[in-house]
Amino acid sequence: MAEKELLVALAGQPNVGKSTVFNILTGLSQHVGNWPGKTVEKKEGLYASNGTRIKIVDLPGSYSLTAYSEEEKIARDFIINERPDAIVLIANASAVERSLYLLAEFLLLKVPIIVGLNMTDVAEQQGIRIDVGRLEKYLGVPVIPMVASKNKGIKVLISAILALSGGEREYTPSIADVSQDHREIFMELADILEPYIAPPYLTRWTITKIMEGDTDITEKMSRIVPADSWSRVQGLLLQHEDSLLAVVRGRYDWIEGAVRSAISEFKRGQILFTDRLDHILTRPALGIPILLGVLALVFLVTYGLGLPLQGFLEAGMNSLATRVEPFLGESYWIRGIIVDGLIGGAGTVLTFLPVLVFFFTAMAFLEDVGYMARAAFVMDRFMHVIGLHGKSFLPFCLGFGCNVPAVMGARILEAGRTRLLTIFLTPFVPCTAKLAAVTLVAAAVFGSKALLTSWALVAGNILVLGFSGMIASRFIFKRKHMPFIMELPFYHKPNLKTIGVVVWKRITAFIKKAGTIIVLFSVLLWLFSHIPGGDIEGSLLGVVGRAIEPVGGPIGLDWKMIVALLAGVAAKENSIAALGVLYGVGEEGVRGILPGVMSHASALSFLVILMLFIPCVATLVVMKQEMGGWRWFLSSFVFMVFLSYLSGMVVYQLALVAGI
């Protein structure tokens, strides 16, 4: 007997436990990518039950189905075009009214809907009593009480999906109408537009969207409907400019009926634990110091536990290379490709894993207990200066350790534009490898002033990041800026399974997307730095350096310094090693040779460009993958090259004028 297949969409507002339900149902069968042509994350997974294979698509969290944001448009277009067998709308039992507004919109699309009433335990703690039977009768759709964090109600939910899709359960949904004073207008619009509304669009939904002033639907219909008929439509809407309010009032009347029939009165005067905490955590005076303390703890754990393991893995890779080398024969090229290219490239990937595991675990924990929303809320005002939201602050902080997990960390952001801009700016955060190179060169060239020089470079780097954010936000990512809407969820106990699935998903995504490509790039870069004669100076990389040496004139760099910067694309530490090789000294001798080959002005230019130049190949790889296409990646690449060169030239010329 052939296995039956169902397509189920999982929908809901942010912070209602939708991800928890998705993770429980799909486990490790998830597939994460991007929606076609979009930067918004697309999550799919499979669940098998009694000979039925259920494909579950986790729609982006949204507050409505009006095309105000990319997430909302994706959610509604999927329902309209794919026509899933069922929609599971996850609702917060402690704030049912908000989810019912979204339900009212979904019902117009005429796809079978099940309401998953999640966090019923939290609602009970607040004194909210919901008569599920009455609510189900009023709405006319199945309502399943759940506590997803404790895996309660999931099996009943699956049974409801199977029964509804198989026609075994009665389904007579109640649909919200426009307010009474506008129903005649609604009918007039229907008479005009109905002949021109074709599948996949539905008449009632389309007219409602036009009354709401939905720009996407209005524009599409204006191209289809004849000019004279469209003029009549516009005339009716102009006469009744409060059409949007009529739609909204109708929905709230419908919601009020549901609340009156099934939900008991909230206990007045009850002081909630969440309210007491938020009174402290969301006030700038206390919230920001607490946030900084939490972040300090996150990075203390991330690097305190991650760096020793990273060192252990590096030692292991070096030991592996030492053991393998005797079996590779006398060929310099084979030894170089395998030891420095393959093993070195794989080692780069592996050494990132401890930092990634601890960071993703810490972030998943903070998300699951409900603190991440507070952190974003507190930092939102400050991040708006550079065109971002508060959540972008967290990946930036991780970037001080390594830009790779910082770019990956941008996955905690939902909005496509915000995530793109965050990734765009992340390479301007100075990672530990850049800071190590700055410390070494500054100590060699500036002596007693090295500390002040290093501090000034880092401070300047942060200022450039802010300036770049303002420029990029205004001219590169100049789409309509959407308001940052976030509902502060209730605090609750973390779900270890959910956290584990999130961490596993993000780690495997990193390995799949970055691992293989990093190894390939490492091999190619090694070859370019050793072909044809086996040394960097006579290699293709050296030839390229001498060819572009004229470019170094305005920035005070000779070809060897330029090649050192290019070598840093493999790993920023390579810049120092390349200087040692090109100037004929080992890495230990760089401090002794640099003062003789670098003036103060040239050293400042070199360090400024190193800090702002394109990041290591590992970061470039994950940037390309996370940006989802070449357009934004190339924009970022060109912007970094231009800004680093311009900054180096300005610093060099000013240093010459100042006699530094």
Strand content: 5-15%
The parts where pLDDT drops under 50 for at least 5 residues are none
Given helix and strand content, the structural type is alpha/beta
Q: How can the largest sheet be summarized?
A: 7 strands, mixed
Task: Tell me the overall shape.
Answer: elongated
Please state the CA-atom Rg, rounded to the nearest Å: 29 Å
Q: What's the rounded overall pLDDT mean?
A: 79
| Distinct helical segment count | 28
**In which range does the helix fraction lie?**
55-70%
**How do the strands of the widest beta sheet line up side by side?**
2-3-4-1-5-6-7
Distance between the termini: 82 Å
| Strand count | 7
Folded structure, characterized:
The protein is an alpha/beta fold. The protein has helices at residues 18-26, 70-82, 96-107, 120-125, 132-139, 154-165, 183-193, 203-212, 215-224, 227-239, 243-262, 273-281, 284-324, 332-369, 371-383, 393-399, 403-409, 416-425, 432-446, 450-476, 496-528, 540-547, 559-567, 573-582, 590-597, 600-612, 617-627, 630-658; strands spanning 4-12, 31-34, 41-49, 52-58, 86-92, 113-118, 143-145. It has a seven-stranded mixed beta sheet, with helices on both faces. A hairpin with a 2-residue loop joins β3 and β4. The relative contact order is 0.08. The mean pLDDT is 79.
